[in-house]
Amino acid sequence: MKIGIIGAGNIGGNLTRRLTSLGHDVSVANSRGPQTLTELAEETGATAVRVEDAARGAEIVVVTVPVKAVPNLPSGLLDGAAEGVAVVDTGNYYPKQRDGRIDAIEDEGLTESRWTERQIGHAVIKAFNGTFAQDLLDRARPEGSTDRMALPVAGDDQAAKRKVMALIGEMGFDTVDAGGLDDSWRQQPGTPVYGLRADSKGVTEALAAAAPERGPEFRG
Ligand SMILES: NC(=O)c1ccc[n+]([C@@H]2O[C@H](COP(=O)([O-])OP(=O)(O)OC[C@H]3O[C@@H](n4cnc5c(N)ncnc54)[C@H](OP(=O)(O)O)[C@@H]3O)[C@@H](O)[C@H]2O)c1
């Protein structure tokens, strides 16, 4: 599958590694330009591209940049993507440590991914946001393994969600449907499922145990 990855840091880099190892055709971009990604490209066989070109022909595009950088992404980010492209958002809002205060998230009560969706102008599927980057490489397991982890996946576009869940399954993880994007507060930072290494049952229980209030450490 042709996959575009926007952001080549902890998560974007390891998604590039894992997805190329499965034989996918990955294009990867960062903020500084493809000439700064030659090492990752050589290591993985991915194609380093400009952000503007990352989505070209892609069936899945992953946006994995700091939340504060989302408004800086170029308009037309998804131009040229395959019809029905599924856009994955891995983002987490860290107002104190990194992102600064985003009023629409805190005052309007938008989920973090709904805010991102509005910024980029395309529906998103929230996935990988609570997964440690290293786990993408170290904790992948064949289907049916007793220690296979499950990841929550939220989003409104059912076809896109199915596509992303299938890809995560192929990557070595079970998935739990965490509902629509307005339910995705259940997997944001500070919730029981965030960073949890558990199977589908554990993830389902953790999602159900979440409280909607944003804790003080996650307010700007
Ligand atoms: N680290 C984790 O384990 C983890 C786990 C789950 C979710 N997340 C979330 O996923 C997101 C990415 O996290 P990360 O740890 O991978 O971040 P990171 O290591 O800081 O990497 C961020 C990447 O985004 C790129 N970037 C920044 N602004 C950009 C722009 N305007 N256009 C294109 N690329 C841009 C950076 O490019 P340059 O290299 O050129 O600066 C860098 O490659 C965050 O929201 C984070 O909270 C992280």
UniProtKB/TrEMBL annotation:
Q: Coiled coil located at which positions?
A: none
Query: What are the protein's GO molecular function terms?
Result: oxidoreductase activity
Mind telling me which residue stretches traverse the membrane in this protein? Answer: none
* Occurrences of domain Pyrroline-5-carboxylate reductase catalytic N-terminal (ranges): 2-93
Q: Which UniProt keywords apply?
A: Oxidoreductase
- Entries under Pfam families matching the protein: F420_oxidored
Top-rank taxon: Bacteria
Any idea what this protein is called?
Answer: NAD(P)-binding domain-containing protein
Which organism was this protein described from? Streptomyces chartreusis
